[in-house]
Amino acid sequence: MPGGTLAAVVAEIESMYEPGWAESWDAVGLVCGDPEAVVGKILFAVDPVAVVAAEALDWRADLIVVHHPLYLRGTTSVAATTAKGRLVHTLIGNGIALYTAHTNADVADPGVSDALARAVGLTGDLVPLSPAPGDPRRGLGRIGSLSAPMTLAAFAERAARGLPRTAWGVRVAGDPDRILHKVAVSGGAGDSLLGTARAAGVDAFLTADLRHHPAGEFVEEGGPALLDAAHWATEWPWLADAAARLASRLAARGITVETRVSATVTDAWTTTAQCEDTK
Question: In terms of Cα–Cα distance, which of 252, 190, 256 is closest to 223?
Fold first, then answer.
């Protein structure tokens, strides 16, 4: 049938990304929407923000599936006096549901880091960088191989081509001529996985939101080379994979939906400017 109930679509999403896999501090699941409403068009995006809501309105979407939670720390009000409150009013007022798959999508197999690994050119069987207890196929990050050895500089260029353009680009720490064979990636903030990447024996680790002191000390102590991309960019490749898998699984149940991946850049950083040379 054309479209299905929101409840049916949510059930399929949660069979792909079980809410129980999410971290205890996370806020995943249905944010707003009538479970009995019919969903025929689904927009996938990283962030639940006004420009994404506007895109959903323009496309006449029935549901937005996002990666980042709208209210990660909870709230006592959805009054339209704040940006988040206005977003909720816009969605409900136009019959658009909102669903979040966050850390449960991060650890899924396949999940956020699988899509990132493929986007930057890793091949072969991908394995979790930090496996989930009791399930070696799930977990944070992924480790993969390059089809042929290449320098850090060449891999950085490949990664930049494989990810969507942002003001941040891809920053690199390490010897540009270092030869890479095995690479680890983690979509989103991967600062907490630096030690895990070192222990895994990879040649480089690509992630986002790396801090100055931990990154500097990591490289000084002989750890893998580091590549730091924009947070939004490292998670965006997952959207197409999630959209395709959801549409296929729903089709197997006789439910036809149209999906769309938002290309709107919602990374917080919008431009850069070079400082003057200190010499």
Answer: 190
Residue 257: which CATH number? 3.40.1390.30
In a domain, 201, yes or no: yes
Are both 224 and 121 inside the same structural domain? yes
DSSP letter string, 3-54:
SEEHHHHHHHHHHHS-GGGS-TT---EEEE--TTSEE-EEEEES---HHHHH
**Residue 170: closest CA among 32, 42, 267:** 267
Cα separation of 115 and 120, whole Å?
9
Q: What is the pLDDT of residues 58-105, one digit of tens each?
A: 999 999 999 999 999 889 999 999 999 999 999 999 999 999 999 999
Residue 213, annotated ligand binder?
no
Q: Give yes or no: residues 194 and 88 share one domain.
A: no
271 φ/ψ angles, rounded to the nearest 5 degrees: -160, 165
- Total tally of structural domains belonging to the chain: 2
Could you give the C-alpha distances from 19 to 62, 101, 155, 243, 272, in angstroms and in order?
22, 8, 35, 18, 37
In this structure, the answer to whether residues 100 and 129 fall within a common structural domain is no
157 is an annotated ligand-binding site residue: no
Strand bridging mode 170-173 / 225-229: antiparallel
Contacts of 157 (CB under 8 A, 6+ apart): none
Would the annotation count 228 as a binding residue?
A: no
0.70 surpassed by pTM: yes
Domain coverage including residue 197: 107-229
Residue 274 located in a structural domain: no
